[in-house]
Amino acid sequence: MLTAITYQLVKSVNNSLRLQQQVRTKFILKRKYEPPLHKINQKPRLMRGRHHIYELVEDTGVTKPKNIDVVLKTFVEGVGDKGDVLSLKPTFAYNKLLLPGLAAYKTEESIAKYAKKIEEKVEAKHSSPYAQRTVNMLERLVLAVVMNKDHPWIIKPWHVRASLRKAGYICKEECITLPKESIEGPDLTKENKEFYCTITINNVETARLKCRIHHWSTDPSERLPYVTEHWKIPAEPLFGIAEPTENAQP
Predict the structure, then answer these.
(1) What is the 3-state secondary structure (H, E, C) of 157-193?
(2) Cα–Cα distance between 116 and 119 in angstroms, integer?
(3) C or N: which end of the chain has fewer Cβ atoms within 10 Å?
């Protein structure tokens, strides 16, 4: 008996909650045929069936929602810095910024409250919204630096720049800092060994880029065997002890 009463109580509560759910649908219509007018203080004339034919003007369920203006409370990677006023899509603004407490709705009070002070502008930690994301991508990368197997060479910044371009990254030579030790070749004992270089981004951020030497020959008979997914294979450091890094990717 008690179980049946509990079941009915839960069912009634669920029904009441279901009735309270708000349906956010709205259709804007207009009459296809205007109804007849009537004189003042007289009974309105009856409408015919054609007066109940409507044309759809707008369906708000399929209309693209307007962007939301928000003010960032702190630096958000890939979005902006503290005090930036942004116009974003509602779904992204709600789920990624407003609910986690990283932003507030745009008002005069919020703009004044979260505006960056002069001291904060001087001590800026990020040069752009995407700088930290670029640092993370470079530090997860294992860059193959392809060098000639038949002719002598010394690794210069332009070698790393060319290898980065092949991997999809555009970088100036001035932003690349190589190790102090000179790397010369060809030397097959250095094949697939690692060394690190520093990439400077906007003269503010720095990223430690892991590089691996690979010898290449124009003569097909002199080429080394191809290694698939070389970045997943552990490699020895070229100088001293290897530095700890996160999970690598090509």
Answers:
(1) HHHHHHHHHHHCCCCCHHHEECCCCCCEECCHHHCCC
(2) 8
(3) N
Query: From CA 159, how far away is CA 176, in angstroms rounded?
Result: 10
**Burial grade of 7 (CB within 10 A; 0-12, 13-18, 19 or more):** exposed
Cα 66 to Cα 22, 28, 61, 75, 89: the distances in Å are: 20, 18, 13, 24, 7
- Say what the pLDDT of residue 120 is: 59
The number of C-alpha atoms within 13 Å of 185 and in the hemisphere containing its C-beta is: 22
Q: Give the C-alpha separation, 135 to 211, whole Å.
A: 15
Peptide bond into 35 cis (omega under 30): no
- Residue pair 209/197 in contact by the 8 Å Cβ criterion: yes
95 plus 149 within the same structural domain: no
What are the average pLDDT values for consecutive 10-residue runs of the chain, which has 250 residues?
Answer: 54 54 77 90 89 90 86 86 88 91 90 73 68 88 90 92 92 90 87 91 89 89 84 82 49
Q: Would you state the pLDDT for residue 30?
A: 94
CATH number of the domain residue 205 falls in:
3.10.430.100
The runs of H, that is alpha helices, within 116-217 are: 118-122, 131-140, 157-167
HSE of 137, CA atoms in CB hemisphere, 13 A: 12
Which domain, by its residues, includes 167?
Answer: 131-232
- Cα–Cα distance, 111 to 108 (Å, whole number): 5
Radius of gyration of the chain (CA): 33
Name the residue among 201, 199, 195 with its Cα closest to residue 164: 199
Pair 118, 209 in one domain: no
Helices (H), strands (E): how many in the chain? 6, 11
